[in-house]
Every structure is written in C-alpha cells, then in structure tokens.
C-alpha cells in the first residue's frame, strides 16, 4: 500500500518557490543527515502517519490541505536556528516540529519566540527545553529527561543501591544525569560517580576503568552502571565485554530504537524504563500504527516513529480546536491543557511548561532465539499520575 502522503514534501518545496501555497503549512525541521539520521527518519515517518491518521487519510483539516516542508538541521545548532527562521520567515510555516538533537533544539527556541510561532519539540529530550530555556511558543510531545529519570529510578532505585552513570557530554547527557540523581534520591539510592565523554566516543576503556575504580569498594547491596546514550558508539556492549560483574556492577539503561536493542540481547534480565516499544501499549492508535507500518515498510514501528505520530496528531487536534492555523494565540490557548490520544495512550500538554505528560514503561529484557535483539517486556506501566514531573522553568 503506497503512503498517500508520499511526495508532499517535494510539493511543499514547489509551493515555497512561489506557487500557490496551502492554507496549513507545517515545517519539519530535523537532522535528516548526521549521526542521528536513523532517529530523524523515524520521526518524519511518524509525523506523516500521525497527520494521516488524525485526518482520516485526507491530509486536510476542516477542508484545508496540509503542506509539509522539510528542513535539515544537519545536527548543527547554527544550521537549526537558520532553518527554523527560514521555515517561519520565507516559507511562512504556521507550526514547526523538531528537532532530534537537544543541543539544536536549545538554539532553535529563541527563533520561535522571535517569530511568535509554535514549535512542537519532538523528540529532543533535555529538561532545559521546557525548563530554564523555555518560552511560551514551545510545546513538547517528546518525553523530557525528568520523565526518563523518574521512570528509571522507579525501575532501579531503592535503599542500599549505588549507581554510576555514563553519559554524553552535552545537554542530553548532563540534563539526564541531573534529573536521574534527583529522582534516585527519592528512592534512597545514590549516585557515586558520573562519567561524561564526547558524543562520538567509540573507545570506552578509560571511562570504564574510572567507573570500575570508583565502584569497586562501594558498600551496597546492588551496584548499577546506568548508561544514557544516543546515536552510535554502543558503550553497553563495549563495557559488558570488560566484565563489570567482577566489580559487582550491573549494567542498566533506558529503552532505545530496535537497532540499539541488539546490544540488550547480551544482557538478559537487564531492567530500565522505556518511552515506547511497539508490543507494549494496548490501544487503538498503536494498533493502527503497528498494522500500517508493518504493511508499508515490513517492519514494526520504532521508538521515534511513535513520537513523530504523537506530534502529528497533536498538530491536527490543536488546529481543529483553535479553528485554524494562522492565529498563534488561539493555538496556544487550544494547546494548553489539551489531551489527545497517541500510540502511547493519553497525552496532556501541561499548561505551566507545555510538556506532554505521558506514560512510561518499566521493562525487563528477555531473549528469544529468533529475535535479533533483547525484547523489553513490560513489568509495570507508569501512568501520568504515577510520576511527579518537576516544573523547572
């Protein structure tokens, strides 16, 4: 079955060049090229599926067609800032969605404020996006670092638990560790050591040795190395090969895309919390996503496909509720407190910071011979009311 939206992006480019423009212009500003390209592709497929699902296949809202324009941030903050300005300015986009990288997102936030247009952040994670760097034009459908942290703290925390962390040295990693430390304190667990490395690190020997030295003599019933990582490099497999068990250290991490879950197969029983795995949510939207994605692409939907779909549905619901896409103030009023159904179930934009509150999933990895990755099996769903997500702005 051919996607009905195939070719919309090229049509949008023609429209920008001077042909008649559609009434509703949505810009997807994301890292199409670079280290997070796989995440970006999933996000775009999900966005288009979300628009399709929410419009019952018409790609129209109240009779007005949707134009989707694509802009590549190349994972560069300056390029992301310029691309968003082009989307709002030259292309006159009503709403923008993206980007993938937290560092790029932080550079883009002031542009939304300058142009007084909505930016729906998906899937960048850093708390500061809807925290200290937030402005009223920013909404986020993706989860934030605190949601990751609190869910993982529930999965791993407890009295007499000691944790070391390994994370990438930028906003995603540092915000993630800060939120994780705060969440762990509520459980009685403690972080003993933090390790930060460059985003393109491939040799984890030195970092692992520092972690092992710090944790070797720690007195605790359980000792974890919690890894926060995005993109290539695969620190989990590299460090697992160094036998952390000889220091009494267990590897733990949150969920990830299917390709990254291949490393989880080496660690049956590994626990953590995940944003999405296609077999976990049980609702009609996810049923449609899984069936449609399997039909069109021959694979199940992945981590960021679900997020992109949530953003696409939010766009449609917001425009309908606001009575159109051109009045930004009406859109803000419509979106603050808005609830809508997604592949993960109900989401809600919190009025105070426009962060989407949503379920997370405590999982335990199981291994099946004919599945090439470790399967995140649900232990417990953590719903909106199960997590007290701080307001940080």
From TrEMBL:
Keywords: Amino-acid transport, Signal, Transport
Location of the Leucine-binding protein domain: 23-365
Top-level taxonomic group: Bacteria
Cross-referenced InterPro entries: BCAA_transport, Leu-bd, Peripla_BP_I
Gene3D superfamilies (alphabetical): 3.40.50.2300
Signal sequence annotation: 1-22
BP-aspect Gene Ontology terms: amino acid transport
Family to which the UniProt record says this protein belongs: Belongs to the leucine-binding protein family.
Protein name: Substrate-binding domain-containing protein
Organism: Psychromarinibacter sediminicola
